[in-house]
Amino acid sequence: MNKSLSWWRPVAPWAISALVLVTLPLVVAGNGTFSIINVVAINIVFALSYNMLLGQGGMLSFGHAVFFGLGAYGAIHAMNLIGEAGYDGHGFWAFFPVYLLPLVGFACGALAALVVGWPFCRRAGTAFAMITLGLGELVAAGSQMVPTVFGGEAGVFSNRMVGPVWFGLELAQPADVYWFMAFWTLVAVFAMWAFTRTPLGRMSNAVRDNADRLQFIGYPPRNLRFLVFIAAGGFAGLGGGMAAVNYEIVTPESLGLLTSGLALLMAAVGGLAVFYGPMVGAILVTVMNSLLSDYTDASILYVGLVFLAVVMFAPGGLGGGIEQVRLAWRRGDLGAHLPCWLGGALAVLLIALGLVSTIELVYQISHGRDKLARLLGLEPDPASPLVWLGIITLFAAGYGVARVSGRYREARA
Amino acid sequence: MLEVIVFSTLNGLLYGLLLFMLSSGLTLIFSMMGVLNFAHASFYMLGAYFAYALGLHIGFWPALFLAPLLVAVLGAVVERFGLRRVHENGHVAELLFTFGLAYVIDETVHLLWGSIPVSYSAPEALRAPLFSLFGTDYSIYRGVTMMIAILMFVALWFLLKKTRVGLMIRAALTHGAMVGHLGHNVPRLFMGVFAFGCGLAALAGVIGGPLLSTEPGMAQSLGPVVFVVVVVGGMGSLSGAFYASLLIGLVQTFFVALDVSIGDLLNGLGFAVDPYGEVTGITLASIAPMTPFILLVLILIFRPRGLMGELEP
Fold first, then answer.
1. Any idea which architecture B2-302 has in CATH?
2. CA distances from B292 to A43, B7, B10 (A)
3. What pLDDT score does A369 carry?
4. Contacts with A203 (C-beta within 8 Å, 6 or more apart), sequence order
């Protein structure tokens, strides 16, 4: 390997990310685009914090949104305090800028995890999954009963254009909020990456792989799980604080099972074993959710199908796939693997096309309109056998390509 | 007061028996394969929707038998081509698979039947009152539902304890590998149990659909409660699931029926608090949906193996 480049390797991802974040506003325009990017930023932090539990600590949680939501609630109440203190002009909150609200979110999330976490962390696995599921349902249902704190069904509103202004950055438009998001995402991602390098981060991998052995060596797994749980809760709360600034409203929905499921979805689609996997998953799932919902009513179904396909056929997730390609490239045998991988990708594409057409056609039959087909300039007629023949051909072709590339791989091995 | 107690008991028993129909399948699947089927309640919902769709063409009674059969076949397909494939990647992958499956089934139901409740109701003849107590009618349909649930319970007990298949299932619960060594086809047994469990859930959906409401959110509202039943009863314990179902059914129904707030209770215990305050004014009826989860968290903290379970999850 080229020695002169060795200092560059660990720095490269960060330098490139920072460069991308700085140049992004020069390339894209429009508040709609920035809104999506801001949501992506929130979800990146949320998905990565979830992966601290599942990917690195081996704890499958169905209640991670509790910490995200409580962080968001903490931040939005702090935002209201800043607004009120602004009239008086004195007191702690009058000098607290809105830009630092994610820290309030972090504190709330970590505190909540600290308070409830200890009894949960005795076991990982199914017990942990169930107890976090119970916690999520409990907090989501309980929040409806305390309207002064959680705002009932409507949630808590606020206004982010309050408090001291730094660097002349007023958080008025989504394009202004972008800088806030970019900064905190970079900070949070770096902090979570640094966490994986600490002894505690390493031990959390050990607790995932072999808890019994760790106990023999003298590290109680429960303590380690508890510490990781608090850290993950804190970073989820930080994401929640970012969300509070972005939306200026927090509803009890953000505490519920759907939000927890979203974190799991993003992390698993992106890949649990690679650090940047959940980021890839967060980008893909968020973009799919926000773009597809304009064109088809089945957008959530597509996200679910992508998730199912990843779990079944690519347990490493998208990040795992990228990592495989990267390793092959560094080993220099990318050319040998490429035909197989391209064949597999082609098969996936064909089958996906077939599935999408089927779903859209079924939707057209049951609801009588289809925006996606019209977008592509097509007017498919569900009654015509030709259309269905085409779909069957797509499936058959996809299956055929998959078989051929599978056989090719076996022949090489 | 007596009226409230009698009807709450009847309704609680009915709800508990419905819960047991769902949780018995779930707990069987869990103890055999070690996988907590997140999509179980989705199969329950599919049962209700299939029965509704079939009932439009062939009537209620044929649909009562056909819908669970269809769902069971679907369950077998899911096990054979989905779960078995994921099995080699470990339990977390299996859980994720069923989680994604629940997502996909729920959305498919949205897509096919829309997001508002469908008008799936019991046949006219069954809506007549079975008996009247204190001036309130108890419909025949509720009686029939309870009958079906009890029949199912007896049939399940008979199948597991008195037949050869039941013997194999019970053996495979604890010594799966050994049953395989003896020459039985354990994967096929797994597929059968999975299909059977899904069919039971669907049966609960078929008879529960008209009682509760048949809408796309029904899986999401009942699913977590069924998990609670399985965990509280003790993972893999059928009798535990039975008692936990009845317990949760009764507790929830009684909480809904009692018109008392936390403040009233505290005042009754000798404290002096404002019965209309923010926290003390919360009525027991509004806590009712939370009771299963309070129970779950308490059980997992103080008795992690559940009421009747032998192993910690």
1. Orthogonal Bundle (1.10)
2. 31, 21, 19
3. 61
4. A214, A219, A224
Q: How many CB atoms lie within 10 A of CB B150?
A: 12
DSSP assignments along B220-253, one per residue: HHHHHHHHHHHHHH-TT-HHHHHHHHHHHHHHHH
DSSP assignment of A125-174: HHHHHHHHHHHHHHHHHHHTT-HHHH-GGG-EE--SS-S--STT----SH
Contact A257 B286 (CB under 8 A): no
Cα(A75)–Cα(B152) distance, integer angstroms: 52
With 80 as the cut, is the pLDDT of residue B286 above it? no
ipTM value greater than 0.85:
no
Question: What amino acid is encoded at B262 in this protein?
Answer: I
Q: Is the pLDDT of residue A375 over 70?
A: no
| Dist. CA A94–CA A82, nearest whole Å | 6
Say if the Cβ atoms of A312 and B279 lie within 8 Å: no
Q: B250-285 b/e with 16+ CB inside 10 Å = b? A: bbbbbbbbbeebbbbeeeeeeeebeeeeeebbbbbe
pLDDT at B313: 47
CA–CA separation, B171 and B149 (whole Å) = 26
Vertex A288, ends B93 and A130: CA angle to 5°? Answer: 35
Q: Which positions 93-152 of B are in contact with A (Cβ < 8 Å)?
A: 93, 95-97, 99-101, 103-104, 107-108, 110-114
pLDDT in tens, A171-228: 777 878 888 898 999 999 999 999 999 999 999 998 888 888 988 988 888 889 999 9
Task: Specify the 3-state DSSP secondary structure of B185.
Answer: coil
Mean pLDDT for A101-107 is 92
- Indicate the residue type of A374: R
User: What would the mean pLDDT of A288-316 be, rounded to a whole number?
Assistant: 82
Write out the DSSP string of A241-264: HHHHHHHSEE-GGGGSHHHHHHHH
Binding-face residues of B in 69-88 toward A, CB within 8 A? 82, 85-86
Whether residue A108 contacts residue A70, with contact meaning beta carbons closer than 8 Å, is answered with yes
